[in-house]
Amino acid sequence: MLIFARNNKGKLVSINDVPNGKLCQCTCPGCDDVLVARNRGKIKAHSFAHTSKPEKRACLMTALHRFAQEYLAAQEQILLPSVKCKHMGKTKIRPAKLVKILQSSVESPLDKYKMDVELETSVGEIFIEVKVTADCSDEKVSYIKNNKVPTLEVDLSQFIEQPMEAVIDALRNIEPYSNWIYSWCDDTLKNEIEKEVEAERLALQRALEQEIERKKKITKRAINNLVKNGTIGLPAKEFPFTAFINTKEYKLQAKVLSAASWSFNSLRVMIDNEDYILATCQILSKKGQEANKLFILFPFNDDALRNFKPIPNSAVLCRLFRKGSYPYMWLSFPEPNPRKLVPAQHKAKQLKRESLEYFENYSI
Ligand SMILES: [Zn+2]
């Protein structure tokens, strides 16, 4: 049913805006046939009738397309559909915006293309492509995107056979039938997202820097305290070994160093960077003689701890940052002297034997 036609001034008109019959002086926008208006009846829906050619679907489509173009171009304002922008893993939405139309035209040239409607609005130039049958060609879509031409596609294909009121309603509120090929505020939204991402990155970096500052402060205080006291509490060190007791194999630990406080001298910081502080000192034996050289690592992050490679066979202690405590642990320990290791293994074996005997007796 044809409800839009071209009048004798070349303007697209709807069936309710023309005189009845031949007086309408209209032609079909699709095939140029002379039309008569049937808009007097109260029962049948009003429509134009062709006079010498058959009414084709193409006539309806062309009429709808032309009417939509002229309707949109004739408005004083337009409610631009909302814009959703996805960029750098973030989404930003600009709600629908009512803008003034300052100037408009239909079939506007854009490079080698023809755009259905061109609107000069209060937020800049916006093109509208009215889709009734064919999609915008891929080439045209690429051109629009590459050249950042704000373009809205309005799909009216479902309205080809619809009554006029439905078409007008759709044109008044185009959001449900619209798709931005390139939105009018795409650059702005992308820019906003980029600024947000950059701000978050800076905040994170700042937080990390503050965290390192904090750990450095705590570390330097700890080093000062060590120097002041001249002693350090070394954790115990055990070496695993396997032993046979009554032909049964056991995995045991030989304790070569008991947890105890040791005196030291010449503590100094060797490396002080963003990831860790490495200090060294000279451990003193119980008799006050210089014993092993001790290195102490204060890592400020897990990477520093993972990446630190101790010199083989050196004594490296690591002070960890744990919630509310700063335990020491051995990162590296010198290979023990057999004179120390063998008795330690012997002792571990002896203790194991005793505990086995105890439980044997217990079970009887
Ligand atoms: Zn026709």
Automatic annotation (TrEMBL):
Superkingdom in the source lineage: Bacteria
Sorted UniProt keywords: Coiled coil
Coiled coil: 190-229
The keyword Coiled coil appears for this protein: yes
Protein name (database record): Competence protein CoiA
